[in-house]
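Weekly structure sync - notes
Attendees: PM, LS, DV (DV joined late)
Agenda: review two folding runs queued last week.

Item 1: First target. Sequence and structure tokens pasted below for the record.
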Amino acid sequence: MLGALVADQYVGRYWTILIFSFIYMAGWVILTATASPAALDNGAGFPGYVVALIVIGFGTGGIKGIVAPLCADQYRRTDNYIKETKSGELVMMDYDLSIQRLYNWFYWAINVGSVIGGIICPLLELNVGFWAAFLLPTCMFALSIGVFVAGSRFYYKPGPTESVVLKAWKIVRFAHRQAKLPENKEAKKACKDTLDFAKRDSQLPNVAEWTSEACEEATKWDDQFIDELKQAIMACKIFVPISIYWVCYNQLSNNLLSQASQMSRPAGLPNDIMNNFDPIALIIFIPICDVLLYPALRKLKINFFPQQRITAGFMLGAASMVYAAIVQHYIYIDQQYLETGKSSVSVFLQIPCYVLIAFSEIFASITAMEYAYTHAPKSMKSLVSAVSLWPNCVAALISLAISPAAHDPNMVWVYTGVAVGGFVCGCLYYAIFRHYDTMDEEFRLKKLAEQNLTYPVNENVSTGASEAEKSGY
């Protein structure tokens, strides 16, 4: 949240990323240095680890919420437009689909890096030491800062804006004050959103005229910003229940690794290498979804809307936990495990669990990031994108709360409980937020009509499959 506020209000996204990158880098240097054999022998390992976690958390926190928005900023179009393909066909380039594709490939790139480090670092730790495992990402991050600075002149770097948080607070306070006026009693009954009372052209029936003081106060914003603020608030609401989805995802980095340590593994294969099957699956299936699945659905006139995709993510996350519970059950009934604490069940039986989680990320995680960007005002894109990461924080706290129960022989019930929570929350999520898809579609069609791009524009313009679909747009 701090990084987002600094980016939106003070120095812009590019410079914020650069500033916090050096803090992030300092954390990695501390982690690597205190993991050296000499530092460990002198008792600096654990204190260094704690300090490094705090510094790295501060650094990555300042970056993580704004890297994706800066990436999306490079797509300079903000509306749909008509483009002529090489074949001479006129096609409509859809803004929402373009941003969806951009976020898919952004997430794909992240997971390429995750696989490289996730495979090499555990092997370095096993065969060389912690200092070597930490040195590799330290060097890679230093290299990435160099690349980021070297490419500066190629980036579009939106500057900071005014204090949007303060501006938003003034609008909310003004709207609620107007709504409470006795003369607006009837208008309040007909109002769907209280923020409409802050609009000059609210189109509310029987709304009272503003006083001269109210008119002067309202000069600090316009109706367009209020509509954008309503969209931002609408987007932020979906992040609350998504926390339960992230509880399912978080099992990858704790309980599933513990499960892998109980299973039969080839010699020299560390258990903490198994969660790399998640980014490997993402690298494989993101292009398949982007290039084949989504265009195929659009050809069939099936709109896989954001709230439907996020709900599918919930269900796949719950399914992965059901699978983990089944695997854990077979571990518990394995005679070898009962005698030695080490099961004969192959660790590779975990792979479907990671694949299911990967598919859930494609539908839930990527869509939530994309939704945060497209539904935030220009002046609040960093802030809303940062808010979209709050579910990770809440999920971590929930995971801490259930951790006392996460031990043998309870693990079947832990996975089952998380699965039930994900399934129930997914059902509730769709019941509560499915109307957002309808609202978004109505808004999209309204914008098309305003741009005079409503299908069919003319007999030579296609919104169907052709070259645009082959490109994923």
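Item 2: Second target, run right after the first with the same settings.
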Amino acid sequence: MNSFEGDIPQSFGDLKGLDMLNLSYNNLSGTIPKSLEVLSHLKYLNVSFNKPSGEIPSNGPFANFTAESFLGNKGLCGNSIFGVRPCKNPSSQESGAIIFAALVYMLRKHRKSKMQNLSSPSMGSFLTDHCCCQGILSDGIIVAVRVLNLQLDGAFKSFDAECKVLRTIRHRNLVKVISTCSNPEFRALILQYMANGSLEKYLYHHNYCLNLLQRVNIMIGIALALEYLHHDQSEPVVHCDLKPNNILLDEDMVAHVSDFGLAKILIENKDTTQTKTLGTLGYIAPGT
């Protein structure tokens, strides 16, 4: 109950004398480290009510653990004695490769056909913006796949800048990048899926609405993300494109800042020159 975030460190496997580890009721994600299997003195483990995913290790001290160690973690899989669903094959990495291959196929088919208007909902914005699709990995995790529009000037630079920034940051109110797919002609990000879409539709579409508490919580979430970017990094990060369309909401209506294609890393004592501004078309909404 400490509001811890991020992955459980693999280095815990170096704590040879550890006999009790209680990480319950936090916001920890990632997999449960297999390095814990070597802890011969570990008698008690509790990672309940976090957000981990993947397979629960089964060797070493895990042979003595029960479902009580893993309660409330829907993303976990493994031995039925742990009270979780069985893991499926192929592995998540293989599933990621399948997604990548499918996206390459769609991209090549699109470029070959030279269509100006596409009827498929997942590809409809391909000519004007980035294409976003939804996928499911073999372990049941739902992901969002953002494909770069190759016809957008400066798109590769934007992708490379975004990857550079995302490698350095991790926060509850920032969209988590699960993986990336790229080759000389193709770029895609595998992202944490946000069930409630962008903040924009809740502010400007008549079919959606937010109550006062939800609005306040969203503002707090965005503020915490910006505070983290500006003050909790060795090199501050400036988003440069903050707007409702780049604020995504998960199933609990928690705000996550996304799209770091324009972000800048402020490096102390280093002069940088911006020769061209890359961005999205349209106006900046009031209050953003």
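Discussion on item 2: The chain has three domains: 5-82, 92-192, 199-265.
Action: LS to circulate a short write-up before next sync.
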